[in-house]
Amino acid sequence: MGVCLQCLVGFSWRANELGDVKILDARIPFLDGSFLPYKPDEVNTLFDQLDKKDNLALYKYSEITVDLAFPICYAILLTGLINWLRHNQPLWIKRMPLFALVADLSENTIIFLMATAPDEINQLVATIAALTTLVKWSALLLILVIILSQLVFRLKDLKRFKDSDTIDKYIPSG
User: Is the pLDDT reported for residue 174 higher than 70?
Assistant: First the structure.
């Protein structure tokens, strides 16, 4: 949990250091934070703006440091939470955080490679990067829905247990 918080601090620091870089139709300034697919010209615009401020290297290396540790942290936390909420999950639900992790690590690697050779970005590479971003956010949204639904069922079970007469067996008389 501490490493996840340190990563969030790192992301905040990165955003402050990179400054005001707005592209992607003013949706969000960085590729991996975009909920919608991006195009090669948007990638080029971002990298050109970062390069003008001498911040492309910071963005590039943050993709393989802070943004490499963070997916591992959240995948471990989400897997633990899913298993804690309900032990007898279907295997595909238990593996969903791993799926998000693989998509996120793939996305970060592709963004790093694009930032390493910004003049050689083509339609296919940018499309693959955008798809991995979309897959990551879709998986994380599904995980959120799973966790929220499990919390609702847990609370209903707790209320049902509290309302039943069996609770009297567990309260010491005194």
Answer: no
